[in-house]
Design a protein that fits this description.
With 275 residues, the protein is of the alpha/beta class. It has one domain: TIM Barrel, CATH 3.20.20.70. The protein contains 12 helices and 9 strands. A 9-stranded parallel beta sheet has the order 5-4-3-2-1-9-8-7-6. β4, α7 and β5 form a beta-alpha-beta unit. α2 runs parallel beside α12 and α11 packs antiparallel against α12.
Length: 275
C-alpha cells in the first residue's frame, strides 16, 4: 500500500478528511521550501502538494503564476524539487508528497529516469496538468513500476466516459477541479460540486479530492462535508506573496490558515457524524 493510500485509510478510520495544501517549490526562495513543508504538516496538513516551477503554467491564475516566476528567478529545476523532497524525508518518513506540474520537465528528464529518481527521493504521486489520459500510458507505466501514484484532473465539463477513463488510470486519489477556469478564480458553487462528485463516485476506486476555489476555513469545511480531501493552493501561496522578505511571517500566516481550515473541517465532519 502506498503512503497516499495508507494516509487515506488512516483518515477514513478516524472519520476525518484530508487537508492537502500546495506551495510552489523554490518560492520565495529555495531554502524556505523544506521548512515550509514541515510547518504545514505541523499545522495539520495530511498530504503535501509541491508545485514544480514552469515558465508557462497554463492552468494557474496570477497568484501561482507569480510564484512560478519567483521560483524561476532562482533557476529551480525538477531535479532540485526532487532533492527538496529527499531533504524533507530526512525528518518526515510518513507524510505523502505529490508533485504537481507540467509534462515538459518530466519529458525532458525522461519518464524512467524521473520515476526512478523521484521514487528514491520519496515522492508519492504526480499530477501532470497538461497530460491527457489518452496520452499518459507510457508515463503511468513507469510511475506504477516504482510505486508512484499518477493523479489526474477531472473538470466540471468532463463527461461520463472521460471520467471513467481517468478513474481507470488514477491511483492515490482523483483530483476534481471544482471551477471552470484557472486556479484562484471565481466562487465555489458547493451544490454543483456535490452533484459532480456523485457522478465521479460511480467510477472512482480511490478517494476524491476537490481543489480550486477553496479560500478559507468556511469553504474548506463545506468541501470536507462532501469530499474525501480538500486541496488548497492559491490561498496558501498568497500568504507567501504578501510577506516576501519575512520568512517567519510567511510560515506563521500559512500555519494560521491551515490550522483554521483543519479545525473547521474536523468540526464539520464531527457534526455530520452526530447528525
Amino acid at each position: 500500500m502506498s503512503r497516499i493510500a495508507e494516509r487515506f485509510a488512516a483518515l477514513q478510520s478516524a472519520k476525518r478528511k484530508a487537508l492537502i495544501p500546495f506551495i510552489t517549490a523554490g518560492d520565495p526562495q529555495p531554502s524556505l521550501t523544506v521548512p515550509l513543508m514541515h510547518a504545514m504538516v505541523e499545522a495539520g496538513a495530511d498530504i503535501l502538494e509541491l508545485g514544480v516551477p514552469f515558465s508557462d503554467p497554463m492552468a494557474e491564475g496570477p497568484v501561482i503564476q507569480a510564484a512560478c516566476e519567483r521560483a524561476l528567478v532562482h533557476h529551480v529545476s525538477l531535479l532540485q524539487v526532487i532533492a527538496m523532497v529527499q531533504a524533507f524525508r530526512k525528518r518526515d518518513k510518513d507524510t505523502p508528497v505529490v508533485l504537481m506540474g507540467y509534462l515538459n520537465p518530466v519529458e525532458i528528464m525522461g519518464y524512467r529516469a524521473f520515476a526512478q529518481q523521484a521514487s528514491a527521493a520519496g515522492v508519492d504521486g504526480l499530477i501532470t496538468v497538461d497530460l491527457p489520459p489518452e496520452e499518459a500510458h507510457d508515463l503511468v507505466a513507469e510511475l506504477k513500476e516504482v510505486g508512484i501514484d499518477p493523479v489526474f484532473l477531472v473538470a466540471p465539463t468532463s463527461h461520463d466516459e472521460r471520467i471513467k477513463s481517468i478513474c481507470e488510470l488514477d491511483s492515490g486519489f482523483v483530483y476534481y477541479v471544482s471551477l471552470k477556469g484557472v486556479t484562484g478564480a471565481h466562487t465555489l458553487d458547493i451544490n454543483a460540486v456535490k452533484q459532480k462528485l456523485s457522478e465521479i463516485r460511480k467510477h472512482a476506486h480511490t478517494p476524491i479530492g476537490v481543489g480550486f476555489g477553496i479560500k478559507d476555513a468556511t469553504t474548506a469545511a463545506q468541501v470536507a462535508d462532501i469530499a474525501d480531501a480538500v486541496v488548497v493552493g492559491s490561498a496558501v501561496v498568497k500568504c507567501v506573496a504578501e510577506n516576501i522578505g519575512h520568512d517567519d511571517k510567511i510560515t506563521d500566516e500559512i500555519q494560521n490558515l491551515l490550522r483554521s481550515m483543519r479545525a473547521a473541517m474536523d468540526k464539520q465532519t464531527a457534526s455530520a457524524r452526530v447528525a
